[in-house]
Design brief:
alpha+beta; Collagenase (Catalytic Domain); four-stranded antiparallel beta sheet; 17 strands; 19% helix; globular; disordered N terminus; binds zinc ion; Peptidase M64; Peptidase_M64_IgA; MetalloPept_cat_dom_sf
Length: 464
């Protein structure tokens, strides 16, 4: 149903197969003002944030009125403790030669946090928008603060060391972004960010073709966050974008609003955790499609999950960090009926809350799809001398076991630096290998298939 746009392939996410229903949402959105009321359906605590109009009159980032052209699925948030919502906005056109060349000459890449090699860490790339040439230091300060806020949330906090953080300095002609402070404000910026996207004040859209052009400058972007230079609350999630550069999805957030960090965390629930939304729209009615692919929603009730050993059954009955016990609560994946979610109110339903236990498990697994529990400080590509120290970098609590010629030894247990000699490699002129296996023993990941992501073995050849 969702139309793709040229340039960046769009993955068909199938959140409970909402195709036909989405058409109704689009119609509702097109109808304008009534949208907040008609879509809320999730407790009624939502402030209607839509206002009639045709979008901010920005030259670069205006949200055109709805047309039949390609659409882009986005998720947005009306207030810091709200349930998210989603809608479709017009997709940007493919960049022309002049735009490409402007970006080619811009976008200095700065390393802000380096915990290990690019291949062994999850690389978070922040791109600034609405920062002029003289404001790039402010941008770097804002990135540091935003990452501090994001990485204060579990399970980021525990796994902070699994990430590298990069900043890409995009120089904007003007300071600030469209739609800030008010509807009519227009700004010329590097990435075309603007509030009031689709007539929704807090929906902070960006030209994701430009995001891709900037993000491709990073060595390996696993997660892309666009920071708009603003104190105004807002952001967005572009979760069906699969980038040629390797990242899944884009999150946007305002730089100087602490609550906007929650938007980023929620969006990474989709991009890194592959989690479904746990909210719903009343008008979606009863779900009658196939079992959803996401790990945190299901057609099955608690007893069925347990009996069939499906989805989050290993967590049922456990007390969850977002409150209450894990079970199967009615509503999720946009449907109020016919779909169940693991807990009452996780961050995948309401901002400001924690991930639930199945969500944490999925996030930790996601972190490790882009990073390893250990990385080689001594390169594995070159032979090591028998008397020379071999060193690995390991996350906190990671258990280390060493091997000689493929056989495990008790020597050097949990030691990150060892010599082949101390491990028992003989000086017999023969070829030998030493290896080390790192395993994260966390109890937060129970699924054996995911636990495999939490172990890594490195091997060195020892010079004879
Ligand atoms: Zn979401």
């Amino acid at each position: 149903m969702r139309s793709s746009k040229p340039g960046i392939p769009v993955r068909t996410r199938q959140p409970a197969g909402a195709g036909a229903r989405r058409t109704r949402v689009q119609v509702a959105v097109a109808a304008g003002v009534a949208v907040a009321a008609s879509l809320a359906g999730v407790g009624g605590a939502l402030a209607a944030d839509t206002t009639p109009g045709t979008g901010p009159g920005t030259t670069q980032s205006a949200t055109p009125s709805r047309s039949a052209g390609p659409q882009q699925h986005v998720e947005y948030f009306t207030s810091p403790d709200s349930h998210p919502r989603h809608t479709e906005v017009p997709a940007p056109a493919r960049l022309n030669a002049r735009q490409r060349s402007a970006i080619a000459g811009d976008g200095k890449v700065v390393s802000l946090v380096k915990n290990g090699p690019v291949g062994a860490k999850a690389d978070v790339v922040f791109i600034g928008d609405g920062y002029t040439k003289s404001q790039q230091d402010d941008f770097l300060t804002d990135v540091r603060r935003k990452w501090k806020e994001v990485s204060a949330v579990e399970p980021y906090r525990t796994y902070k060391k699994q990430f590298n953080v990069w900043a890409i300095e995009a120089v904007s002609p003007q300071s600030g972004v469209g739609g800030d402070p008010d509807y009519g404000t227009s700004k010329r910026t590097a990435l075309g960010s603007s509030f009031w996207c689709d007539n929704v004040e807090r929906l902070l859209c960006v030209n994701h073709e430009k995001v891709e052009a900037y993000a491709s400058k990073a060595a390996d972007a696993d997660l892309v966050i666009v920071l708009a230079n603003s104190t105004k609350y807002g952001g967005a999630g572009y979760n069906d974008i699969v980038s040629p550069s390797g990242y899944d999805g884009i999150a946007t957030a305002s730089s100087d609003n602490p609550d906007s960090s929650q938007i980023v965390v929620h969006e990474t629930g989709h991009s890194l955790g592959k989690l479904a939304d746990e909210y719903w729209y009343d008008e979606y009615g009863t779900y009658d499609g196939a079992e959803p692919w996401e790990s945190n929603i299901s057609k099955l009730k608690s007893a069925q999950l347990t009996a069939q050993k499906k989805k989050w059954y290993r967590w049922i009955g456990q007390t969850s960090p977002d409150g209450g016990k894990v079970g199967a609560y009615r509503g999720g994946g946009y449907y109020p009926r016919g779909i169940y979610r693991p807990t009452q109110n996780s961050i995948m339903r309401t901002l400001g809350n924690e991930f639930n236990l199945p969500g944490r498990e999925a996030m930790i697994a996601g972190f490790h799809r882009h990073s390893s529990v250990i990385s080689a400080t001594t390169p594995t590509s070159t032979k090591v001398r028998r008397t020379k120290v071999v060193t690995v970098e390991a996350g906190k609590g990671v258990q280390l076991r060493w091997y000689v010629d493929g056989r495990v030894t008790d020597k050097g247990r949990d030691d990150a630096s060892m010599t082949p000699r101390a491990l028992g490699v003989p000086a017999d002129g023969r070829a030998h290998t030493v290896s080390v296996r790192g395993t994260d023993p966390t109890k937060a990941v129970r699924d054996p298939a995911l636990r495999k992501l939490l172990t890594k073995k490195l091997t060195w050849r020892v010079a004879s």
